[in-house]
Amino acid sequence: MAVSRHIWHCGAGLPGDVLIADLRAYRYAPHFHDAWSIGAIEHGRCTFTVHGQAHAASEGDLVVIAPGQVHTGGTSAAPLTYRMAYIDAQWFDDHARALFADGARLPGPVITAPGLCAQWLAALTPDPIPDPARRERLSAALFGLLAAHAAASDPALTDAPDVCALLRERMAADPSCAPDLEALAQAQDRHRTTLVKQFARRYGLPPQAWLRNWRVARARVLLRDGLPLAQAAHAVGFADQAHLTRVFKQVYGSTPGVLQRAGASHTL
To answer: 120, 152, 184: which is the final residue of a domain?
Structure first.
């Protein structure tokens, strides 16, 4: 697969991370992010999956994946260039509520909109620009995307408070936890295997895989805030920093060290 060379851009004044990465060694394991993943295809065509369904995006398309949606990274046998932003959910919601009182949802995961794609490519340029200017470009691009393609959120579309939702809430609240699935299943008068399958159908990954991914997402936040790698690994429940590094690369396509170096070189 031929792809562009990529870097992390982690400016202190940005609403998230800009990923421009060399993904040739990327393992395309199913994963999710705790942020909105918005990518602009500059050249070529890629294929990927979202919740097990196959999709394709080409030059001029935007790829939009909501927080928590399990997906695989884009693959291509031909030259491919794209740029990806991970937009913090709260920053996204602030923009959405400026246009929709109860927030907004976007269609996806592929939106064909060459004009908007060009706007996002400009916002995600690898050229060095001040963080305030990049933030302004990202804000304008997000407003443009929401105004053209978003619909009002439906407050009724929330998880019912069943055992799967409760398990997810427990793991999200404490990523270092190790939930006793056997005990939880027995308390709900069901088999452990049934609970695991029901959780995977709803959230895209079995509980342990979901928790491992969530730990990486939380570690990314700690690393952006300057916590050393070993401490971040311990805080979210990884056995050591080597384990965190392996899973981090599966999810983000770069090692934590690349993220840390980018954050150190792009501060206000």
So the answer is: 152
